[in-house]
Amino acid sequence: MPSLAHYLRKLVRETRAAEIAEAAAVLPLMFMILLGIFWFGQAFSIYGAITRAAQEGARAGSIPYCATCSTTNTAAQNATAAVQAALIASKLDPAKARPMSPAPNLLSCATGAALACGSGSTNACIQSPVQLTNTSLGGTGLCGVSVSLQYPFRFWLPFTSINKQTIWLSATAQVRMENR
Asked: What phi, psi does 171 have (nearest 5°)?
């Protein structure tokens, strides 16, 4: 009768079905990596879209007129309309966007005091006119518009600590005011 050592040596030398065991060990890890790449790519895409929306809002808010409007719009109204249009064009829901919390601490061009978010927008923090350069260094201050917003993103990565957690992606853009 063969000994236990004989059976162990035979088991160690046996290589049949080793590929199945290796695949069973590697495939779950590979699928988790692929899911992670997909979901982080989605988050990066949304981040790019809200950054573009903030830039469009700041650019629209820096123009003191509206060529397609029948009435004179304020910088906040122009910026709000541009942010909403950019979010819709990116297939994002503008109702989910919200002003950045806390609001950026920017100084007013007129008074030099901290400037709060404008009241015209519920989905973005629009501050106008703000100082874009530091006037304490002796230079002339540039005035502009700042637009900042946040958008929620929910990951789906099973068996991880970030599964089904909502993170808030933030974007800010500043543009100097146009004089016309």
From this structure: -145, 140
Domain containing 87 equals: 4-176
Task: Give the three-class secondary structure for 91.
Answer: coil
Report pLDDT digits (tens) over 39-97: 999 999 999 999 999 999 999 888 866 556 656 667 788 888 899 999 999 999 999 99
First and final CA of the chain: distance in angstroms?
A: 102
Count: domains in the chain? 1
Handedness of CA 89, 92, 96, 102 (dihedral sign): negative
Q: Alpha carbon 169 to chain centroid distance?
A: 3
Give the number of other CB atoms < 10 A from CB of residue 101. Answer: 11
